[in-house]
Structures are given as structure tokens and as C-alpha cells.
Give the backbone structure.
Amino acid sequence: MYVRVFVSSNKRIATQSYKEHALLRSTSKDDSGVDSDEVQDVIACVIDNTPINIDAKTITPFKCVISSAGTLQEDHQTAVIAIYGCWLPDHRLREYRYIMDQLFYYVYHKLDKLVTNDYILVYFHGATPKHRTPDLKFLRKCYQMVNFRLRKNLRSVYVVHPTRWLRTVIALSRPFFSNKFYHKINYVYTIAELERQFPNNRLSIPVAIEQTDWLYSQKYDRQNASIKRSIAQSATLSSLNNSEHESVA
């Protein structure tokens, strides 16, 4: 049993129970709403010893871009953080750059609060159109601004539903990232595959991403079935050849 969460631009509007995946959907308040440290539409924080006032009112529709999924059951210390590409701002917004800068500070601030030891990032790219995907320049800027502690404590990054375009962008970005960071990136093509990695964590998955997952599941299930058939055929041929050699001998 899990609760599917329907998310609008700035709040959850309905819930519905289903008996499907074991992957539990989050009911955490981290998805949206007013943060505990928000005062009069401003979140005052310190990032790398620099005081920052985050414009919380402007980024309210996009706060659900980050969500906490608790810690790994194995050690109860490694935090699991989810990022959702489908909730990023549209490039066509008039103040897009300003919104993205404020949203970056917000995500950074949330990470700084949530991460005390090692952590894992799960990025959901499914249902993310290109006009919501940050460009390479912005990603490089974000990477350079992240402090040493957050870089060092990052155990791995799971990219869910990666498109060929996204994999190409990540490959082209390799010169700008450290080798250690690049080798922490793992591609996950279906939610079922992700579920096997994190069977006990409450990952919130928007309906739009679940719908995209159906398409990925159809595609990769067919590929896996084809691979299994090829292996089975190869094993059969090998067995027949061995039998023929034994008969000749």
C-alpha cells in the first residue's frame, strides 16, 4: 500500500491509495509550503560564510523540486535526497535567471541542513521537457559553488529515466567535473530498478513521472527479454555443438 501524491505548482491537491509498487510515496512537508526558517517570505541563511536572503515567495511554486527520503536502512546515517526535473522553472519565464539563482540557493540551503554525513542524490529526469532542463553553463556554475563538504560526502548520484540527450550532456560535462564525481553517476531506467536500490526509502514520485516510467518499462523490458532470448539461444547452440563433438569422438 502506498499513497500517490498529486502535486500542483505549489501544493499537494489530492491523495489516492494504490496497491502497486512497494516504493512508498512521501507525505513529508519538505515538498512544499512554508519552511520553518522562513520569515516574511525570506529565508535568511549563510552559504560558505556569505549571508544570503532567499526570495522564498518567488520560488514557492518550485520548492517541491527537492525532497528528503530519509536515510539508508543499512547504516541509518546516509541521507537520500530526491531532485525532480519536472518541477524546475520554465526557461520562458521572464525572470528565469533570477528564479534559478534563488532556487539554487534554496536547494543548497536544504542540502546543508539535511546532510550531516554521507548522502545520495536521486535525480528524476522523467517528464522533464527541454524547456525546464538547466543548461550546461548553469550546471557548471552550481558544481563550482558547492562546497568541499557536500562534494566529499556525496556517495553517489542516481539519474532516473535518463534520455540520450541528457547522457550526452553529462558526457560533454566530464571535463568540468572531477573524475571522482563523474564515476559516482549511475543511470537507472525504470522505477522498478530504483526500487531494488532503495527498497525501504520513502521516495515521492509525481504522477507525471509514473506515466513516463510506463514507457521506459515497456522499452527496457523488451530489451531485457531480447537479451535473455539471445543468451538462451547461444547456450542452446553451444550445448548442441558440444553434443555433436562428443558423438564424433
